[in-house]
Amino acid sequence: MRELREIIIHCSATVEGIPFTVEDIRSWHRRRGMSDIGYHYVIHLDGTVHPGRPLERVGAHCTGHNTYSVGICYIGGLDRDGHPKNTMTEAQQRSLANLIRRLKAQYPSVTQLHGHNEYANKACPCFDVQRWARALTIA
Ligand SMILES: [Zn+2]
Fold first, then answer.
1. Which of 41, 60, 64, 101 has its CA 20 to 30 A from that of 74?
2. How many domains does the chain divide into?
3. Is residue 129 part of a domain?
4. Which domain range does residue 101 map to?
5. To the nearest whole number, what is the mean pLDDT of the chain?
6. Is 109 among the domain residues?
7. Is the pLDDT of residue 139 over 80?
8. Residue 114 Cα, ligand 1 centroid: separation in angstroms?
9. Ligand 1 midpoint to CA 62 (Å)
10. What are the residues facing 71 on neighbouring strands?
11. Looking at residue 67, which CATH number applies to its domain?
C-alpha cells in the first residue's frame, strides 16, 4: 500500500437532486483522457459509498496533492441555478463522516483532511470542510 497522509473532499459539481453515479463520473473522466475515475470513493445521494480508483493507486483529483492522498467525491455541489452549494443529503453527510473515520482508523498515517478549495481556486466541494469536520469532531 502506498503511503497515505491526507483525505481530500470533492463534489461532482452537478445539480442537487440528480442521482449521478460512480459510473457516470468514470465515463466523464475517461472521456477526458484519464485512465480511470480520478477519485477513490464516490458517495451517491442515498449515502451509499462506491469505490472508484483502487486506493493503492494514486488518484487524479487535486493537482500537487495526489501522491499521498485519498480523493472522496459526493454527488452534487450545485444549486438549481448552477451555483456552488453544499447539497449533501443527511445520508451523504453521515456516510462521508463514517468513511473518513474508517480511513483514519485503518491508515493512522492519514492525519490531514482538506477540501479541494483549500488547494485550488475552486468552489469544490462547496462547503467549509474544516468547519464541518470540527463540528463532527473528526478533524
Ligand atoms: Zn474537487
1. 64
2. 1
3. yes
4. 6-135
5. 97
6. yes
7. no
8. 11
9. 7
10. 8
11. 3.40.80.10
Residue 94 grid coordinates: 453521515
Residue 115 alpha carbon to ligand 1 centre in Å: 8
Mean pLDDT across 112-125: 98
User: Is residue 61 within 8 Å of 10, Cβ to Cβ?
Assistant: yes
Instruction: Kindly list the catalytic residues.
Output: 10, 39, 116, 122, 124
pTM flag (> 0.85): yes
Please give the grid coordinates belonging to residue 124. Answer: 469544490
Sole residue written with cell 469544490: 124
> To which residue does cell 453544499 refer?
86
Q: Does a structural domain hold residue 1?
A: no
Rg of the chain taking only CA atoms, in angstroms: 14
- Residue 87, in any domain of the structure: yes
Q: 85 forms bridges with which residues in the sheet?
A: none
| Proportion of the chain above pLDDT 90, given as a percent | 97
- Residue pointed to by grid coordinates 453521515: 94
Sheet holding 6-11, edge to edge: 49-51, 41-43, 69-74, 6-11, 112-115
Grid cell at residue 3: 503511503
Centre of ligand 1 from the C-alpha of residue 31, in Å: 17
